[in-house]
Amino acid sequence: MNKDCFIYNFLEEAAAKWPEKRAIIYDTFEVSYKQLFDDVVRKAIHMQRFQGQRVAIYGPSSYRWIVNMLGTVVSGKDVVLVDFFLPAQVRKGLLAKASVEFILTSTNQYILADKDARIIKNAEKDNVEGLKLDLKRGEGNILMFTATGGEYDKAAVLTSENLVAAANAVNSKLTCGTKDVVLTPISMHRIFAVLYGLMWPLANGACVAVGRGLRHIDADTYYYNATVLPITPAMARYLTRVNGYNKELKKIIVGEAKCPKKYLESMMARGVEAYTVYGALETSGCIGIGRADEDGFELYDGVNATIAEDGEILIGGDMIMAGYETDPEYTSKALDGGVYHTKDYGEFTADGRLRLNKTNPDLIQLATGEKISKRVTCKQLSELNGIADTCVVKYADLLTAIIVPVDKSDNEAKFRHLIDKYNAKKGYRWEIQKIIVSQEALPTKENGEHDEAKIIDKYLACNQ
């Protein structure tokens, strides 16, 4: 075992246990555990030939994406995982925020390029015959983006130890084996996909089937004959509607947002084990798990959870992030006392399960798994021409903006045009899907904040 080389040791051990076992399949392409380990090491050796510390990766999920991500970390460089479908300007801002020096992208055939996508001289020459991996450099960190109360995309820094600890923790309560095919339809820039769709299956000798994109999700379950399926609530809704669950499916794991009970019941009616999981990027996606018919979540081994006096859930363990990138002040608050302050609220049941009563009130969790900062979104919309005030809420799975115009004669068509322009700049993740124009001031609480309950009751619930 090599000290501080957690991903390297993880892959080496898997290759020793199941050398010829199929590790990953992508469409018609498949590789063994030994081949995966060898490819990752070769990529790491290649990456060590170049100066610089931070590399961004973006592109559709694929075997090459996986090798580039793991190889970069094993080389000792930090990897920044970015959503491939973001508008170019948004992506450029994230690269700058994370101090990215290099990029690996499908557009350039994953040949190392500078931050402006210009291919580095000789980077296409990846023959590393005769060279050895320098394990003394240790491993790099993994940076992913999440929303906070005051920021759309805040980079959280995870270590390779965090990821391996999370995979081992999931193993304590959730099983899969060498005969399982774990289909990963979620883009791997998300921690839920990295943990449940890559690291956890590889820890068990299972085969990771890389999804061919959202447009193929209902075909991929049948194409790969998946036995385990980690999905978001939005995917659960779609697959239920189109009967997209194949007969070989044994386990469905729903994460990233609360899943409506009717979709979970539909899974169980098929004889499938249906689970919901609780986690956050800051905890490497790992806190607890519950069957669809159970109350609350059973904590994974190694997860230490306590409840603060005000009911906030506090989490400790080896899977807790190193911190937020370039923000020591916010990090110190989030990790005060050596535990992660989730800003979710809950309690323990009589049998020791963790019941989640309220999620972070500063965020909107969409069924797609995206998190939206309420404060930032409302502020940006209120700054648009002609808008005096606005409140953004999720209702009936739609991100809805209730708008108060400056000029009471302005109609909905004007604001639809404004919102369409806003959506085009922000991208699909934060798309405002519905608007309501109010000629009256929005209800507020005594502290001046919007009273969301009254707003929903007045403008949305009454129209159901």
Structure characterization notes:
There is one protein chain. The protein has helices at residues 6-17, 33-47, 63-74, 88-97, 160-171, 191-202, 217-224, 233-241, 261-269, 328-334, 374-382, 412-426, 452-459, and strands at residues 22-26, 29-32, 54-58, 78-81, 102-105, 113-114, 142-148, 151-158, 181-184, 207-210, 228-231, 251-254, 273-278, 288-291, 298-299, 304-307, 312-316, 323-324, 340-348, 354-358, 363-365, 371-373, 387-395, 398-405, 434-437. It is α/β, with parallel strands linked by helices and 464 residues long. The chain has two domains: 6-358, Rossmann fold, CATH 3.40.50; 371-463, ANL, C-terminal domain (GMP Synthetase, Chain A, domain 3), CATH 3.30.300. Helix 1 packs antiparallel against helix 2 (33-47).
Notable features of this structure?
single chain, alpha/beta, Rossmann fold, GMP Synthetase, Chain A, domain 3, 5-stranded mixed β-sheet, ANL_N_sf, ligase
The biggest beta sheet reads: 7 strands, mixed
Query: By CATH's scheme, which homologous superfamily of the largest domain applies?
Result: ANL, N-terminal domain
- Which percent range describes the beta-strand content? 25-35%
Number of domains: 2
**Outline type:** globular
**CATH architecture call of the largest domain:** 3-Layer(aba) Sandwich
Count of alpha and pi helical runs: 13
| Measured distance between first and last alpha carbons | 60 Å
CATH class label of the largest domain: Alpha Beta
Give the uncertain stretches in residue-range form. Answer: none
Average pLDDT number:
93
Per the CATH scheme, the topology name of the largest domain is Rossmann fold
